[in-house]
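Tutorial, part two.
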Amino acid sequence: MLDIQNYTSFVTAILVFQAVPGAGTIAILDATARQGRAAGMAAVLGTLLGDLVFMVGAALGLAALMQARPVVFQVLQWFGVAYLVWLGVQLLRSPASGGPAQPAPAQPAAAYFRKAVLVSLTNPKVLLFFVAFFPLFLKPGASAATLPVMMLHVTVLSLAYQAALVLVGNLVAVRLAGFAGARRAATRLAGLALIGLGAKLAGGVR
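Running the prediction step on this input gives:
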């Protein structure tokens, strides 16, 4: 599709990263558990806005780099492979944690939106992720339209996954809160998936 290489792996990687619990996921589940679906969707929009800011910054920098420093761009591709594998290893090594939110005073949905934006924008790992992630799937000499299309893919798939989290994820999270084995297995599977993706994409780096 356009100049996206390994398109299936690209979509798979987005979904795997969405499935790995992070600060944004916790903010969404927390808002939903405390105030219901409206607060949860507000947190979703806040997370997406924060991610969009980082994506735009990463895309602008990468677009300039692709034209001025092709060799550095190739180095970034290898960095992306290493980063995927490193994240996978961290997931394999990390203990599963998390649980249901504790009761708290009611807040308007806008408060959860602002909180989610802040959570996303204060996580520099998000920017690092996009700088490492996008080059892995760009064909050499990719057109200027490719990065915006990739950003659209990330946004749409993230919205779909996070909206599903709001609708059914909180129920699942509460039910599984007491089953550390289930959380641990999900974390380990995500780690293996990231390592496998990194290994597969390493063959396509030129």
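The chain has a mean pLDDT of 77. In part three we will examine how such features are distributed along the chain.
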